[in-house]
Specification:
This protein has 621 residues and is mainly beta. The protein is built from four helices and 39 strands.
């Protein structure tokens, strides 16, 4: 596949400037009426309440976000089928048809503890109509195969052993939490192979070490996620896993490649057997093997070129200069997109701290950004973000390995140590007359709305399965992420990776939600991102919902669905014409029930609660 740029530019012909809003259409609730739009069915199993987080677990912002928005209802192996895992670790396959709901317990996940992994959420991943991958939430994965109508465990394999793990540095029990990103069954029917990606957090210490004569300072840990690819050959058995005397064949799992990123990927899909597509919020994946690329990690005892932190509205960058300079020796130009910093007659500074039209991670408001020089040694940039609330993963568009000092108090300690200043001799040069940015709030001072992760640009890349190297990627200024599309049941037969369709994604463009599909371009042996439809005003509407837990669009462009943590689901129907001024909106109220999962099939919305399964017939909405 030749290297190419994924163009995520919306097609203006698919935008509707005449749209005026959604009109509410009331939905008949259950009430025992068989003709109602909403029908409820008690779970034919134990409750579906998710397991609790282990006491003392240390999770990052991204891990908390992933946990809050975890969908506990999984797509099944065939159309109209779904999977949930109950509180007793039983895997339940639900079939929905015109006759109602039928539930079958197909597997009991062995209950175990791991010395390597924290107790995360279990998951189910349908690979084809007869194969399901079950993850226990720790480190074990089980492959179920349907034979003669019965589901049995074909084999099991382990992930994550030998990993660098996360946790407090002084903890005797440093364990990581594994997240399955995606899985696919590739190869011919007589040579089945699973391609799988999972990730876990590693912590990088970004505090430079003090000289040996002084007491070591407190570590500043920056979360980085290791993304690992695993290949599992279903024909090769290497032993067995014993569970209460029952032997489950052990499958051979081979590590293929590993990458690193600043966030848990939001999109991981497979383009046949040779490539996969990765979408990472707020930045690109960092290519590497088990450690980040050489030169990107700070070396003990070697100071960083600068330290930085951020708030919702601004970025503060502190540079400790090697020798004292005056403000007249500094030429600093801040534009909307870049920094130029030059020093006159200061060779020590010129070599390491000069920037020549270096692009920022995202745009700034140049007229409201300033720089200061204190005591001739501490140069500080106060950058006003053009898009408030957007988190920067690096200061500049090209990752130089300088990670954010996440805690504001730790940043203040660094700044004080670098500066050792008095209140005298402060020289401020304002560009455009704006006020300096206040940087007292810490980067981790988030409210509930921030946990939703809105207004975050996602970089998509097409990568080689064997090496993990990128063959194509989207531009850094891609539209912001809104949500994925509802997953669909896998194809009834494997096709060896030829012409596989990938799930669309919904991105933000102004007030709208624009949906892109990734399609193979066979003529160029590459991938094309195509704008296939628009949900008018969806971006604007979702921004007003503070309690949202799930958000999906239908791949057929018929509905967009937004679900709160409890009680309400909002359904936004596609407008009837390209220039329609209005479209229909439904609100379905589930009482005080916690909404644990949501899926969609054939004009039916399926909602999982603790003890019930709800079906919403959109033909009656």
């Amino acid at each position: 596949m030749e290297y190419s740029l994924l163009n995520l530019k919306p097609n203006t012909l698919l935008l509707n400037p005449h749209f005026d809003g959604y009109k509410l259409w009331l939905v008949d609730s259950d009430g025992g009426d068989k003709g109602a739009a909403v029908q409820s069915y008690p779970l034919a199993s134990a409750d579906a309440d998710p397991r609790k987080l282990a006491t003392g677990a240390h999770l990052s912002f991204d891990e908390m976000h992933a946990r809050i928005h975890y969908n506990h209802l999984f797509v099944g192996p065939t159309d109209g089928s779904f999977i949930y895992i109950d509180s007793e670790n039983s895997v339940n396959l639900v079939d929905i048809n015109s006759q109602g709901v039928r539930t079958l317990a197909i597997f009991d996940i062995p209950q175990k503890k791991s010395q390597y992994a924290l107790d995360g959420y279990p998951g189910a991943y349908s690979l084809d109509e007869d194969t399901i991958l079950i993850f226990d939430g720790l480190s074990s994965a089980y492959v179920l195969r349907r034979q003669n109508g019965l589901w049995t465990a074909l084999g099991a394999f382990e992930i994550g052993f030998g990993s660098v793990v996360a946790g407090p540095s002084d903890s005797a029990d440093r364990r990581n939490m594994n997240y399955i990103l995606g899985a696919a069954l590739v190869g011919e029917s007589n040579q089945p192979v699973i391609h799988l990606h999972f990730c876990y957090r590693i912590d990088r210490d970004i505090r430079c070490k003090e000289p040996a004569a002084t007491t070591a300072s407190t570590k500043i840990l920056q979360p980085v996620f290791c993304i690992r690819a695993v290949k599992v050959d279903l024909r090769i058995l290497v032993g067995s896993l014993d569970d209460d005397g029952d032997a489950i064949p052990q499958l051979f799992a081979l590590d293929v490649h590993s990458l690193h990123s600043h966030a848990i990927p939001v999109y991981c899909e497979y383009l046949g057997s040779n490539h996969f597509v990765l979408g990472v919020r707020d930045g690109v994946a960092l290519d590497g093997t088990e450690a980040p690329p050489q030169g990107t990690m700070p070396v003990a005892g070697v100071p960083e070129p600068y330290y930085w932190t951020q708030t919702d509205s601004g970025v503060t960058v502190c540079i400790q200069l090697p020798s004292s300079v005056s403000a007249d020796q500094i030429s600093c130009s801040l534009t909307r997109v870049s920094l130029t910093l030059e020093f006159n007659n200061a060779p020590d500074c010129e070599a390491k701290y000069s920037f020549n039209n270096t692009a920022f991670h995202s745009h700034i408001m140049a007229d409201e950004s300033v720089w200061t020089l204190e005591n001739g040694r501490l140069l500080t940039l106060y950058l006003q973000k053009a898009r408030e609330g957007v988190r920067w993963t690096t200061v500049f568009s090209t990752d130089d390995g300088v990670l954010e000092t996440m805690d504001s108090s730790e940043f203040a300690v660094i700044r004080e140590r670098l500066e050792k200043y008095t209140s005298e001799n402060i020289d401020m040069r304002k560009l455009g007359g704006g006020l300096p940015i206040q940087s007292g709030a810490g980067a981790m001072d988030q409210d509930d709305d921030d946990l939703e992760g809105e207004d975050s640009s996602v970089v998509f890349s097409v990568r080689n399965w064997t090496t993990g190297q990128a063959d194509a990627s989207s531009a850094a200024e891609s539209p912001d992420w809104l949500c994925p599309s509802f997953p669909r049941a896998p194809a009834s037969s494997r096709n060896g990776g030829q012409g596989w369709a990938l799930p669309p994604v919904c991105l933000k463009f102004d007030v709208d939600g624009v949906v892109f599909a990734f399609k193979p371009d066979e003529a160029r042996a590459s991938l094309e991102a195509q704008h296939i439809g628009t949900f008018a005003a969806l971006s604007y509407i979702q921004g007003s919902k503070r309690e949202k837990r799930f958000m999906f669009v239908d791949a057929d462009m018929s509905v967009a669905v937004l679900a709160e943590t409890r009680r309400r689901v909002y359904i936004y129907h596609q407008a009837k014409s390209d220039n329609a001024a209005n479209a229909v909106q439904n609100i379905v109220d589930f009482g005080d029930s916690e909404l644990l999962g949501i899926q969609y099939t054939g004009k039916t919305l399926v909602v999982l609660c603790s003890s019930s399964l709800y079906l919403v017939d959109l033909n009656k909405c």
